[in-house]
Write a structure and sequence with these properties.
4 helices; mainly alpha
Length: about 100
């Protein structure tokens, strides 16, 4: 069980690292938000699952944390993206469409 838990924590840590690279490399704030949110949610799931294997007594607390992360992380990301769009943050020239702008018109 200890090996499985350690592997899951390592996978979660690698996802966090790749997320950090993605945040640095993405061209605009909207892509950075998407990269950060998806990877941190997945990375947190792996890390907390690994901790559950390493410390079975913490499983009830970790389940509550997982539910909280899964429910709040996408919502907070959505709110930040809407605020950025409301403040007219520029999009990358590679962006082909802006559905939110089309919906406002």
């Amino acid at each position: 069980m200890e090996i499985v838990g350690s592997i899951l924590v390592l996978i979660g840590s690698l996802i966090f690292f790749l997320s950090a690279l993605g945040v640095i490399r993405m061209p605009d704030v909207y892509n950075r938000i998407q990269t950060g949110t998806k990877a941190t949610t997945l990375g947190t799931i792996f890390v907390l699952t690994g901790i559950a294997f390493l410390s079975p007594g913490w499983i009830p607390k970790l389940v509550i944390l997982l539910i909280f992360i899964i429910l709040t992380n996408p919502v907070s990301s959505h709110v930040v993206a809407r605020a950025a769009h409301f403040n007219k943050e520029p999009m990358s020239p590679l962006t082909t469409c802006d559905k939110m702008d089309e919906a406002e018109e």
